[in-house]
Amino acid sequence: xxxxxxxxxxGAIGRxxxxxxTFNRAYQVVFVDAVGLLVDKLVNCKEYCVHLEGRSExxxxxxxxxxxxxxxINDIANEIADSAFVTASVGGANLGDIAGLIAVxxxxxxGILNILVCENWPKxxxxxxxxxxxxxxxxxxxxxxxxxxxxxxxxxENSLDVIVESEQSLYVDETHWVGDKPPIEELLFCKNIEAYxxxxxxxxxxxxxxxxxxxxxxxxxxxxxxxxxxxxxxxxIDLLNAASQVLIKDYNFTKTDMECHxxxxxxxxxxxxxxxxxxxxxxxDPPRKLGPEERLVALVxxxxxxxxxxxxxxxxxxxxxxxxxxxxxxxxxLAEMIVAGGPEMVLKQICGFNLMERCYQxxxxxFCEKN
Length: 371
Description:
single chain, about 375 residues, alpha/beta, Rossmann fold, N-(1-d-carboxylethyl)-l-norvaline Dehydrogenase, domain 2, 2 domains, 4-stranded mixed beta sheet, 15 helices
């Protein structure tokens, strides 16, 4: 196989992480994206810059890539046929859009295809694998490799450039990888990918939505503004400490591991003004973020299992139920449910709580305290 990688999804993660770490190890990058205007811009501009910000700073120029629109089925299949591996960072809800393309490519290929599934979506690797099997792909022709994306990335305004978090990369499940591992040091192969995925879910992702929902209620537009409010900062610390207790018990992280990770999040990620995310973007689609397997409710289940306080999470769930953005269909749906059946309807139907649970009562208390 050639030193070539097909990158499905030319968004911030595709351009700012996956293309960055492969191009810098002499791989040919082929982008595939559903947004025609983005593909045209990549083709016409011929290069862009990845700006690394944080503990260390650097700039990488990415050039010499190719970019294909998602309806260019034959060319995409040909690229897959002789690629070293493929990556997917299209959003979990869009995996169906690329499954058919990968299936066509598999039919032209000799040898197994490693597909790095880089989605912030529960069981995304299983979802994509099932989609490929349903399209008649031989289960021995591919392997969907679950990954945990650690690098935060943000597209620069009016530019293809991407601003990214330095010294953060990608954890890859080595138990699913088939064949020789690529010589890319930023691919961090590990035997227990679930541990790193759950660490990200319960700390990075949960911390982000706390800042988003609490920040919204305090009139903040940017996450770092919310972090600057002492009450919100303390609530964040309480949440991250609660998550740390679970991760230490469930996944054998040490106390030092978690202290360092929490410090990294507070001091370098959440406070990074160059990577400043908006409360509106991070808060969007609250029904998904309140789902049973998502960052908040799933964490509650682990805290309950160990008899630990669920208050730090209940506080965030209540704030999420008070979030409203008329341009966000998920937010509107949540508001309509609350009008129709009160916050109780959300807690039962979206979160999956029952009224006898401690967290159920805590969420109601926090919700009503602010209304």
